[in-house]
Specification:
The protein is mainly alpha-helical. The chain is elongated, with a radius of gyration of 20 Å.
Length: about 50
């Protein structure tokens, strides 16, 4: 596909009227996917304080 041809076609985005409700299990799954896709280290708990 050439760059000229791709500019001719409009992009159509269909959005729902309202956001879907997520159960806690689905929210945890999505968070796990996002965590795997990022390179940011995630803490498992509060940071330990040094004495």
């Amino acid at each position: 596909m050439s760059a000229t041809h791709s500019e001719d076609r409009p992009i159509r985005v269909i959005l729902p009227a309202r956001l879907p409700e997520l159960t806690p299990a689905v929210a945890r799954g999505l968070l796990a996917i996002l965590t795997e896709l990022t390179e940011v280290s995630v803490l498992n708990g509060p940071a330990e304080e040094e004495p």
